[in-house]
Amino acid sequence: MAVIGEGWPDRAEWAGRIFSAGWRESDGGTRPVIEPATGDTLADVGIASPTDVARAGVRAAAAAGEWAAAAPSDRVAVLLRASGVLRDRSDTFREWIVRESAGVPAKGDYEIAAALAQLAHAVGLASLPRGEVLAPQTPGGTSLAWRVPLGVVGVINPWNAPLLFAVRALAPALALGNTVLLKPDPLTPVSGGVLVARLFEDAGLPDGVLHVLPGGADTGQAVAADPHVAMIAFTGSTAAGRAVARVAGEGLKRVLLELGGKNSLVVLEDADVEAAALAGAVSTFGYQGQACVAAGRHLVHTDLVEAYTDALVRHALAMRVGDPREEGVGIGPVISVGQATRVERIVDESVAAGARVLTGGRREGLFYPPTVLDRVDRAMPAYTEEIFGPVAPVLPFRSEAEAVEIANDTAYGLAAAVHSGSVPRATAVAGQLRTGMVHINDVCAKDAANAPFGGMGVSGNGSRIGGTASLEQFTQWRWMTAPGPS
Ligand code: NAD
């Protein structure tokens, strides 16, 4: 077994266990964590059975009252200490992210920096005003409304940004007084679970406030169904989001859904074509295209399409494919055989239907090279489906109206980018796109701790995470009246 992260956290403590008021044996057995680049087993983690989830739900509910009643400064102190531990242990976090999720070290650094930003933002969130003094209906009386914690929050996450997605939900949920059941994806249970538990343990989070319950769909279903859980924050595919929402809906829980996308990068004829192609390459090839906010359609004005496509191919050819731990590698393997065969099917079916491969298009094992496709039409899977791989379908358009029509021709509505020499013009086009997020002369794939992240259509359910949206999501209103001054 390849040994990584020697020292902290002590493997003897967490290997084969779950975290639920301490590290303990699970009823769900263990599961190996496989490194996509090498096939090596990196660790064995404990898998939480539905019974383990039920026990964790009871413990989290029992801890909820005291944590909610803690002074905001006490909760903030935990978040500040967690930032310190994350900084001190950043080498360990980076190494696990690189080896478990198969991203290059810069992807690990990005997740760490973004997680630190989320913790810093949550520190501010804890002390924001959260109430209103209302006009009382009885003269001289009191009428107050303020936001209180929900209780136990269930967080169900995917594998592609395991640390960031854990912290972006945990930090506001904890800051605002909730306790949490965190279910990381079974492909990344260490960087998305074990290390997060150890981080908050070292930061002094009281026992029972956070539970880390690795497992697959059945563990996720148990979290969504648990009677102690008041809210589910789910990030993942639209199909799994629907399955989670069905179960959570039955229990009348709040559901925050961050789902998939088919995001367009639009290049108008007055754009800087080199800058647009660089943004396009980053948006589709970065982390092997495995981001919900990756560009899934490159819509380019016919006047620029040749220059844009040439530049995109140049960027694709310049990226070395290999083990992300090797110096100079820009593209690692995709996460799993399932993901590799999915990307292969989408490209092969599109090519059989008439698309042309300008570069890439053939995988070796899990290594799928950056690929550029043209002659893509609207019936092809490369146009209709979220690819979640390093594949850039390029489509020409003749007018702004046509670009907007193509960009909106999807049930998804997560992110978009518009490139133009005129920011007001790009802004006007952006205003016509049905997406939760849009960026001018930039990449599609952006996030910021102070911004409301999320999508429209089947990319979500109108919920957002980040910024002041997290204050709304992770708390609920309470109204109180009294006949006199309270
Ligand atoms: P997935 O939906 O298969 O899995 C995500 C999580 O849900 C995992 O923890 C998984 O174990 C769990 N899960 C799966 N089926 C479940 C079920 N029936 N009940 C309960 N839990 C279940 O997602 P994936 O394929 O691993 O991740 C890729 C998808 O996630 C893409 O569609 C991508 O666009 C989306 N995503 C969205 C965002 C966002 O913020 N909008 C971010 C990253 C990824």
Automatic annotation (TrEMBL):
Short name of any one Pfam family annotated for the protein: Aldedh
Keyword ATP-binding (UniProt): no
Keyword annotations: NAD, Oxidoreductase
Sequence ranges assigned to domain Aldehyde dehydrogenase in this UniProt record: 23-479
UniProt cross-references to InterPro entries, sorted A to Z: Ald_DH/histidinol_DH, Ald_DH_C, Ald_DH_CS_CYS, Ald_DH_N, Aldehyde_DH_dom
Presence of keyword Oxidoreductase: yes
Family: Belongs to the aldehyde dehydrogenase family.
Entry protein name: Benzaldehyde dehydrogenase (NAD)
SUPFAM superfamilies: ALDH-like (SSF53720)
Annotated EC: 1.2.1.28
GO molecular function: benzaldehyde dehydrogenase (NAD+) activity
